[in-house]
Each structure stands twice: as C-alpha cells, then as structure tokens.
C-alpha cells in the first residue's frame, strides 16, 4: 500500500544575495580633515603647523591643473612617510587606486637613494605633479628664510637635485 504524499508547498526560487554596495570614496573635504587630524601636533622645520604645508601642496596641485585624485594625494603625501597613517590604512582606505598609488610613490623608503625615489614617482601616473607642488612649497624662499643658513643651504640643494631628477628644471 502506498503512502499518500503530503501536499508539497511551493518552493520559492532562490534569490541572489544583493551584491554589496561599493564603499563610497572619501570626499576631498573628508581627506583634508583626515590629513589634518593625522598630522595634528606636528610642525614643519620652521615650527609651523604641518597642516599648512599640506594645504599649500594641495593648492599647488590645484593651480597646476591637478585633478581630485591628485589633490587628495597631496593632502596625504606625507602621511605614511611620517607615520601619521599606516600602509595598511592606505591600502584599505576609501580612495581610488590611483590616489593610493600616488601616495605610495611619494612615500620615501628607509635608505632609498634619491634616483630610485624619482624613478618611482616618474613611473606613477599623476605623482610627478604632486611632487612638483611639494618641492615648490618646500623651496619657497619665504619658508626657507626662517631656517638657519646651513639647513637652508642643504635643503635648497636637496630640492634642486630632486627637481633635476624629475626633469622639472629651473626653480
């Protein structure tokens, strides 16, 4: 004798799980706020708040025709090098891959020769413009004027040598 089969209830069709929304990228205002917070309490060689240098480099990138990715990189260009943010933070940050690559290219490595540093910058699309703005602010005569002569002379030579390695010529 056969057993009656229970009435089967309709089985719903499998529904694909929604794909996660891509993480929203940080806005330039958020990048600026993050960079200012990361460098809070730091000063430049003249004793001024370090965020002033970051703002000047970001503005230098803007006036040289840089795009939003380069401006974001300008705000963050010293963050990893100065241990204000970690490499792990940068890798996971809600930034474009290009912005991350520019920040990484501008991050000097311990013991790295200037020529190797310059080659990495030149090999990274968008990085040379950010470094140009950085060097321009670093070599600003008004900024250098407050430093002792030996420091001023050493830095002037260092910045001129990097400009030459990057093919920037002149001042």
What does this structure look like?
It is a single chain. By secondary structure, the protein is mostly helical. α3 packs across α5. The N terminus is likely disordered.
Question: Summary?
Answer:
The protein is mainly alpha-helical and 171 residues long. The chain is 53% helix and 0% strand.
Task: Describe how the helices and strands are arranged.
Layout: H1 28-38, H2 51-63, H3 68-76, H4 87-92, H5 97-106, H6 114-122, H7 127-138, H8 141-144, H9 149-165
Identify the notable features of this structure and list them briefly:
171 residues; disordered N terminus; mainly alpha; 9 helices
The coarse overall form would be globular
Radius of gyration over alpha carbons?
A: 24 Å
* DSSP strand count: 0
Number of helices: 9
Q: Structural class of the helix and strand makeup?
A: mainly alpha
State the major sheet: none
Assign a percent range to the helix content.
40-55%
Give the amount of beta strand, in percent. Answer: under 5%
Low-pLDDT segments, ≥5 res: 1-9
Mean pLDDT: 89
Q: Roughly how many Å apart are the termini? A: 100 Å
Order of helices and strands: HHHHHHHHH
């Amino acid at each position: 004798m056969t057993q009656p089969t229970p009435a089967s209830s309709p089985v719903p069709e499998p529904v694909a799980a929604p794909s996660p929304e891509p993480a929203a990228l940080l806005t330039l205002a958020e990048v600026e706020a993050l960079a200012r917070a990361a460098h809070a309490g730091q000063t430049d060689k003249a004793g001024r708040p370090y965020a002033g240098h970051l703002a000047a480099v970001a503005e230098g990138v803007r006036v040289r025709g840089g795009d939003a990715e380069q401006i974001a990189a300008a705000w963050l260009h010293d963050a990893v090098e100065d241990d204000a943010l970690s490499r792990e933070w940068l890798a996971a940050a809600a930034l474009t891959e290009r912005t991350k690559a520019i920040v990484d290219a501008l991050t000097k490595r311990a013991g790295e020769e200037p020529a190797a540093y310059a080659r990495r910058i030149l090999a990274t699309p968008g990085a040379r413009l950010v470094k140009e703005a950085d060097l321009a602010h670093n070599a600003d005569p008004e900024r250098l004027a407050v430093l002792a002569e030996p420091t001023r002379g050493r830095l002037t030579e260092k910045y001129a040598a990097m400009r030459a390695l990057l093919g920037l010529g002149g001042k």
